[in-house]
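Q: what does this look like with zinc ion bound?
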Amino acid sequence: MYVKKLDENDELLLKQRREKIKEFQEKGVCFSCQNFITGDIFPDDGLIIYEDELVRCQFEKFPRATGQTIMVSKEHYEDISEMPLDLGVHILKISDVIIKLHKEILGAEKVYMCTICDGKRNHLHFQLFPRLKGEKIGYQNFVREEGILMDYQETADLYRKALKNIKL
Ligand SMILES: [Zn+2]
């Protein structure tokens, strides 16, 4: 699994996704709730590595870091200020497993975590950013240029297998 620089066609796909999100936000519709119904904003494409009744965890198709992972709540909470603590604990337990897998499978030196959920209408989600050996440390890892995730199917299988028997 690796991140390739975007070519023209990839850039177009990313632009289309951003426009779709913006369109929903302007209508006051939550794009994440919408995606749980239609699946056409963040298609599975084999990127979903874990799912239960509360959350879905998915590799970002246009990541800023190799293995960037989105963990999104299925219920609508606008941002972290609305998050029930029980859900936070649930997400943290899953994060703990994924973070260790990022270290084992990707050889990540560190794994960063953030939650933003900005804009007019958004949906509680957390992001994990693996920092691989040799990559510069620090905040710039949150704002690196997006690429496109390549050759991820086998790696995603390893994550899915490991997360299948997670004890929560
Ligand atoms: Zn929502």
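Residues 30, 32-33, 76, 123 surround zinc ion (CB under 6 Å). Residues 56 and 72 are 5 Å apart (CA to CA).
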